[in-house]
Amino acid sequence: MSNALSIRQLRKTYANGHTALDGIDLDVAEGDFFALLGPNGAGKSTTIGVICSLVRKSAGSVEVFGIDIDRDFAAARRQLGVVPQEFNFNHFERVGDILVTQAGYYGLPLALARERSEKYLGKLDLWDKRTQPARNLSGGMKRRLMIARALVHEPRLLILDEPTAGVDIELRRSMWEFLREINARGTTIILTTHYLEEAESLCRNIAIIDRGRIVENTGMRELLRRLDREVFVFDVSGELPPGFTLEGYATRVVDAHTLEVTVERAGNLNAVFERLTAGGIAVRSMRNKANRLEELFVALLARSKEEGATA
Amino acid sequence: MNRHEQFMAFATILVKEVRRFFRIWPQTLVPPAITVALYYVIFGSLIGSRIGPMGGFDYMQFVVPGLIMMAVITNSYANVVSSFFGAKFQHSIEELLVSPTPEWIILLGYTMGGVARGVCVGVIVTLLSLAFTSLEVVHPWLTVLVVFATSVLFSMAGLVNAVYANSFDDISIVPTFVLTPLTYLGGVFYSIELLPPFWRALSQANPILHMVNAFRHGVLGVSDVDVGFALAMIALFIVALWCFSLHLLKSGKRLRQ
């Protein structure tokens, strides 16, 4: 399968001397749902900016479906749809006009532009807002408007820079469903997000970027498999005795009804339950203390920081 | 992009620009009409009746072409500078910058948007002038050509200003400190024949003087300057501004990081 995106030795040093990207190599396969994660200021938005040509790269190459963005910018941009982090539409324009105008910038005839506008505003539950000025929309609606706008020319590669920031959980989940649906229909998606459960739930492959370098680039499952321990939180019905420990496990009594148990990858939860039962403790519910990807993410960034300090 | 797609992109920008200034008509179309109507009343009727003839015409007739040009110049400039800077300020310009629309189409679209407003305002103030005086256009084609070319020129100048501007203050500096003085000293209200030789010669360096007089020649058939020279100068400015604006858009200066 060919690559939707190929980045080679991408570097970006801003005018103030700050190096945002320090030689990035990245491939995203066609049809993938790809997560690009990293802490604030790691270089995610700069990478996206270079891909969609809002940021001028200092060195390196970017190809979108094999088209070099420097050699044939028009053909490359036609393949791309971008949903930026910040709202970047004219707040005084009407919702429907924003989509039709965007379609026009891609050379779509007016009739087709209107048809696509209706299609994507409908899919994102904004059709009844089409005559409203964009400034009247709620935050969640504005996010959906930006997704609809990015899709109006039906790009093959959709890049979403924190599309669900500030969106309530119900709306976030409906947006996940919509993104899964368009990915299933063949659109390659690159997602940056700070909600790691979002990346874990949606994405098949992942790259983690830190201080302008890719510190991890692998499949989501492969990455999660590397998690060598997990912390589980048990809510128990009776009161835990003070100083309660579970032999063979690192435990922490959070309060009289809550216990944290660290389980090594080699171990299993059955043994934990057996010991709790033997100790006369009934478990009411159990959950992971943190998202699994979050734990890996924090560990990888800590390692990257250590390596940076050593270097 | 093929020709048809380029045309669609151009038409989209133009329609968006026209829709914008019609949407905010109380800010874009009404103020110039009121301002110029006041000029007609005060300078044309009240003071003008005491001034007597100028350039072989009564003062009201003399001043009308200048005032029309003044409205065309300021509105063409204002449309592009405020629209383009507004798009830059709100980041909605990114919608265009990430699209396959070539830079020359962006420039042409915004320029024609400025021309549309300049011409609209020009038509409004011309119709208003008919309430105060009669106008018989001596050279209609020359009149249209000068209005169009001048509007193109100042629309592109507005785009250059918008690219360089960092704040809303920056988009009012050029109109306040450059355009207004040059327009007022550009033969709108007087013939430079009235000036002493030194000031008359200095006035020749003011490009707006040539545009106003070329237009006055089109309407009334009289001019303080050589109309051929004025047209050549406008053409030269247009070519220079086209090249410079295109260079700014292609280089992404102050638009792309």
What kind of oligomer do you see?
A: heterodimer
Order of helices and strands of chain B: HHHHHHHHHHH
Which structural class best describes the helix and strand composition of chain A? alpha/beta
Please mark out the parts of chain A with pLDDT under 50 across 5 or more consecutive residues, or reply none: none
SS elements, strand count of chain B: 0
- Helix coverage percent of residues of chain B? over 70%
Give the rounded overall mean pLDDT of chain A: 84
Total tally of structural domains of chain B: 1
Write up what this structure looks like:
The complex is a heterodimer of chains A (311) and B (257). Chain A has 311 residues and is of the alpha/beta class. Chain A folds into 2 domains: 3-225, Rossmann fold, CATH 3.40.50; 229-292, Alpha-Beta Plaits, CATH 3.30.70. In chain A, 35% of the residues lie in helices and 29% in strands. Chain A has helices at residues 44-51, 73-78, 95-105, 110-123, 139-151, 169-184, 196-202, 220-225, 269-278, 292-310, and strands at 3-13, 19-29, 33-37, 59-64, 67-68, 80-83, 157-161, 188-192, 205-210, 213-219, 229-236, 250-255, 258-264, 283-288. In chain A, strands 6-7-8-3-9-10 form a 6-stranded mixed β-sheet, sandwiched between helices. In chain A, strands 2-1-4-5 form a 4-stranded antiparallel β-sheet. A 4-stranded antiparallel β-sheet of chain A has the order 12-13-11-14, with helices on one face. In chain A, strand 7, helix 6 and strand 8 form a beta-alpha-beta unit. By secondary structure, chain B is mainly alpha-helical. Chain B has one domain (3-251). Helices cover 77% and strands 0% of the residues of chain B. Chain B contains 11 helices and no strands. Chain B has helices at 3-23, 25-28, 30-51, 59-90, 93-97, 103-129, 140-164, 170-184, 197-203, 207-220, 227-251. Chain B is elongated and about 60 Å long. The model of chain B has no long low-confidence stretch (mean pLDDT 89). The A-B interface holds A 14, 49, 52-56, 73-75, 77-78, 80, 82, 84, 86, 88-93, 97, 100-102, 104-110, 149 and B 1-2, 4-6, 8-9, 11-13, 15-16, 19, 23, 86-87, 90-92, 94-102, 252, 256-257.
